[in-house]
């Protein structure tokens, strides 16, 4: 084995990229730019937006405005999150967290998503597990099922 050939463990431990297969950048298969406006939003921005939205729903709305005790109503923050997500993404294409992180939810044609896909996406997002399973274009199961993508603004 020459020094330029990858060891056999590198092909299955490191994935296809370490074996020399170029998959391109996230969003390339979708015809999106690699960087800048319209490119696929990376995980840092998406997680940041989710944390901001979750904090708004749990702390600001549930505890301050509605005076809900998390021990008495543990389901309330999830319902508030789902409601704000459907309303804001369904009508504006982004939540407060998305806006602060410079991203938005878009339909696959680049326009605003329709209400039914937003409802489906929200239910799957609230289940959390579908958002953790994603493809090489960084689209989670909730994105693929609802035919949406999260892009930079």
TrEMBL record:
GO terms for cellular component: plasma membrane. The keyword Cell membrane applies. InterPro entries: Pra-immunoreactive, RDD, UCP021697. Residues 41-147 form the RDD domain. Keywords: Cell membrane, Membrane, Transmembrane, Transmembrane helix. The keyword Transmembrane helix applies. The chain crosses the membrane at residues 47-68, 74-93, 114-134. It is found in: Cell membrane. PANTHER family: PROLINE-RICH ANTIGEN HOMOLOG (PTHR36115:SF6), PROLINE-RICH ANTIGEN HOMOLOG-RELATED (PTHR36115). This is Uncharacterized membrane protein YckC, RDD family. The lineage of its organism: Bacteria, Bacillati, Actinomycetota, Actinomycetes, Streptosporangiales.
């Amino acid at each position: 084995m020459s020094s330029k050939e990858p060891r056999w463990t590198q092909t299955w431990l490191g994935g296809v990229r370490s074996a020399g297969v170029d998959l391109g950048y996230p969003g390339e298969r979708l015809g999106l730019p690699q960087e800048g406006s319209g490119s696929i939003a990376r995980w840092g921005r998406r997680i940041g937006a989710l944390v901001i939205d979750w904090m708004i729903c749990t702390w600001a709305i549930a505890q301050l405005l509605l005076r809900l005790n998390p021990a008495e109503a543990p389901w309330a923050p999830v319902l508030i999150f789902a409601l704000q997500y459907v309303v804001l993404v369904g009508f504006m294409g982004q939540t407060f967290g998305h806006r602060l992180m410079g991203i938005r939810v878009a339909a696959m044609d680049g326009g605003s998503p329709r209400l039914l896909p937003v409802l489906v996406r929200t239910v799957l997002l609230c289940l959390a597990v579908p958002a953790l399973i994603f493809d090489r274009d960084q689209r989670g199961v909730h994105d693929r099922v609802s035919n949406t993508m999260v892009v930079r603004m």
